[in-house]
Amino acid sequence: MSGFELVHPSSLQEAVAILAAGDPSVRPFSGGTALMLMMKAGVFQPSRLVNLRGVGAQYNQVSVTASGGLHIGALATLASLEHSMEVLHYAPVIRHAMKRLANVRVRNVARVGGALAHGDPHMDLPPVLASLGAEAIIAGPSGERRAAVEGLYTGYYETVLEPGELIAGVDVPSQAGWSSAYLKTTTRSADDWPAVGVAVSVRREGDAIAECRLVVSAATEKLSRLTNAEAELRKRVIDGAVLSRVADAAAAEAETISDTRGSAAYKSQLLRVQLRRALLQAVKEQVQ
Predict the structure, then answer these.
(1) What number of CA atoms fall less than 13 Å from residue 43's CA on the CB side?
(2) Interior CA angle at 125 toward 122 and 130, to 5°?
(3) Of 30, 230, 236, 261, which cross-links 111 as Cys (Cβ 3.0–4.6 Å)?
């Protein structure tokens, strides 16, 4: 790695001001798990890194909102989500997903904001948060704005974040009445990058699915909401025939890509299988 300057802003506003200058060689730094790999590989050589760890303790915290949802600070580590009793009670699917996300060393360092802002479709946290209907809180030179997590991504490693903008936190709405599941298929170790990741959230009225959010990642260039598959599921009672129609709709809708983890056709079949399994798991947990 070549030399670079490391600066330490004491507030989020100061960090935004430094980043807003528009120099593409200046980047924010929190956990650095992905950034350091890129620097070591020579993919990116910064002139300056803006260390976010001193911008305020409130950005490290996970708290319950007045409506029964969760507020997650952007500098909260993935390990803190894994061990948070608030997360376990109000959004347990997040905690369950952490156990197969990389390894404990990575989870101890990696931050929520970076996991969202990096734009890598193989990340596990974005599809889970998207299926929960979460919103990212984005701070920038013009103030604060919000964006649904599912709408953060425009392409492979591409997001809607403008120069100088940072993710300050995430709000997860109340999950009362909903149940969720996240499943992924890896081609090597269980905690490896997924070939496909599927996150689902469902709310039932009686035996029928009243509302649902179905999300696929890793097999596609960007996290994608499966709206056609949702339409096949909504207002229906889950049985074998319904699951087959939903799975087929998802496979037809998702624009899967070929890479070292498998062909597009292979990933489409994985999506069919894992979507069925995730839906059955979510419904089973809701019954319990």
Answers:
(1) 7
(2) 105
(3) 30
Query: Is pLDDT above 80 for 59?
Result: yes
Look up residue 45 and give its two tokens.
């050589």
Which amino acid belongs to residue 175? Q
Residue 15: CB atoms within 10 Å: 23
In this structure, CATH architecture of domain 57-172 = 2-Layer Sandwich (3.30)
| Closest C-alpha to 166, from 135, 141, 129 | 141
Q: Are 230 and 213 in contact (CB under 8 A)?
A: yes
Contacts of 226 (CB under 8 A, 6+ apart): 214, 215, 216, 249, 250, 253, 254, 275
Domain residue spans in the chain?
Answer: 5-51, 57-172, 181-287
**Do the bridges between strand 224-225 and strand 135-140 make them parallel or antiparallel, or are there none, so unpaired?**
unpaired
**Per CATH, the architecture of 5-51 is what?**
2-Layer Sandwich (3.30)
Assess whether pLDDT exceeds 70 at residue 288: no
Q: What is the pLDDT of residues 156-209, one digit of tens each?
A: 999 999 999 999 999 999 999 999 999 999 998 888 899 999 999 999 999 999
Q: Provide the CA 167 distance to its chain's centre, in angstroms.
A: 13
Q: Can you point out the beta strands (E) in 74-126?
A: none
Third-level CATH fold of 181-287:
Enolase-like; domain 1 (3.30.390)
Longest pairwise C-alpha distance within the chain:
61
- As given in the structure block, the two tokens for residue 48 are 């300056």
- Report the alpha-carbon distance of residue 246 to residue 69 in Å, rounded: 29
Written as six digits, the tokens of 187 are: 């081609």
- Cα–Cα dist 114/122, whole Å: 13
Helix segments in 20-84, DSSP class H:
33-40, 78-83
